[in-house]
Amino acid sequence: MLLGVDVGGTFTDAVLLGDGVLVTAKAPSTPEDQSVGVMAAVEAALARAGRQPRDVRAFAHGTTVATNALLEGSAARTALVATDGFTDVVELGRQARAQLYRLCAARPAPLVPPELRFGAPERMTPAGPLRPLTREAAETLAHEVAAAAPEAVAVVLLHAYRHPRHELAVRDALAAALPDAHVSLSHEVVGTFREYERAATTEVDAALSPLLGRYLRRLAERTRAAGLPEPAIMQSSGGLADVASAAAHAARTVLSGPAGGAAGAAFAARAAGVERALCLDMGGTSADVCLVHDGAVAETGASEIAGRPIALPALDVHTVGAGGGSIAWRDAGGALRVGPRSAGAVPGPACYGRGGEQPTVTDANLLLGRLRDDVPLAGGIALDRAAAEHAVGALARELKLDLLACAEGIVRVAVAEMTRALRVVSVERGIDPRDHALVAFGGAGPLHAVAIAEELGIERVLAPRSSGVLAALGLVVAPRRRDVQRSVLRSGETLSAEAVVADVAELTAAARDALGASDASVAATYELRYRGQAFELAVPFAPGAPPATPARLREAFEAEHEQRYGYRDPGEQVELVTVRVSATTPAPAPPGGALAGGGPSPGATLPGPAVVPLPESTLVIPRGWTGAVRADGAIDVRRDDRSAAR
Fold first, then answer.
1. DSSP readout, 414-448?
2. Residue 587's closest CA among 157, 328, 264?
3. What are φ and ψ of residue 23, in 5° steps?
4. What's the pLDDT tens digit per position in 438-459?
5. CA–CA separation, 144 vs 324, rounded Å?
């Protein structure tokens, strides 16, 4: 059987896939040591399946260790080595502000304080060394760094993406002076230009890798002792990596959790024959949204986590603080707000009976009859209606509202927040959500999916039978993957078919070598821009596509530019800035089909209004909508014809 385990803010989900069935289990997450919750979920899944650890053929894991450390600022003691005169590049950042007129809004402080920043006596240009770094200077620098006793070191030298020899010299000197420290080199971590983004990403990688490494070693020890295979770790790109690779570069896993959900959503969309889908993963702490076209999740060459740029390939997932455990509150102006603060796994929503006293979205859904207090939630949690009434009632009195009106308001505000997030990945990018289906999953996603669809004008909602653990299922079906990228900066005469082929061939060899699979499937992504533009648009070429000649690159880029910005400029020169190659090998095929137990029978019709219990979640179908249960157990909910006409 194949095993997948996803760690969420409230629950840790496990799925076992094989023998013609899908077995699922949940256990409370254990933030102090996620491996405890992981093993509890695995044990529960094995017990439900009646199987032993030796029956598990492959184990895939999505973790939030790096994400949580970044959000909480609990990084390892890290030093930064940069070209002399450029040690403050991360603190200086860029002039751009997310909110133009909030002059008092500050960016996150660098993970490396000023006293741990060291200048390297060297200078590299795009053409080669201007000021060579001598061996003696590198050794002296390494001893200065060692005297500060860092646990990790980020090395970011000018133009190392093209000429890495100075970074390699610093690495060798640090290995002698600080043999136990983790060292992240910018040309290995990022491999592209833009000094600020490259430095910030390398700093994150160095600061988080020791923490993630310790966690993964603990988990590997526990799985080895239990007789399980070593886990493969989900990366932000949606592909799996071995433990050693993930521990060496934690920055590649900062979206590990959401990436599993996105991979599961793409799998569900493909199974239902849905070519264009918006996906909503609503868990206990947050909601993640993404776009799926032709069975693949949209990707991006860079992302931002907690205000810090991560210049690495990632699935294009947008996150908002709207989950089942999101806390409802009254702001200074008297308005009802929901999130981003969450009750989390401990104490959880008030209705969990674990000491929580603040009202949450889950409490509101219980009071509105969308959840039942006589049936435990997945994970064995019995809901306490009286506790929910007490928590929501206190907020209702503050707002001078009736109890149920307050509960309805909490849900409506949460729906508005998730609708806004879906507009970010669709409307704001020139994509009409009305010709998409909404794939809803996570423990709370199907509860609110149809209400969100009505706000966006979407006519179809798909709720997989395993929607409550779809992120864990996404881990099982995810491929192994490695990405290699490099800035090439080609235009005019240097942008030739021969040059592009040579760039791709070199990166392909590096990606396959990193993956350890010489026959891995390869896809290339080209980041292009019009001459004079500051940033690029990514144009993917799938495996087996015609060669990326300059003419094909231009046409694909201009089509994307027109969709995104509404125009193209045929007379302007196009520049190829970065080439990225992804090497993948498919996930092992499960033995036999798979169908989760529980839920309505295939072929059933479910007219609204209805509350439909699923194995790990609940689907709400309002009046004017009807659900049809597919052969694989997924529920296809569509607007009634008469309702659509009105």
1. HHHHHHHHHHHTTGGGT--GGGSEEEEESSSHHHH
2. 264
3. -105, 135
4. 999 998 999 999 999 999 999 9
5. 49
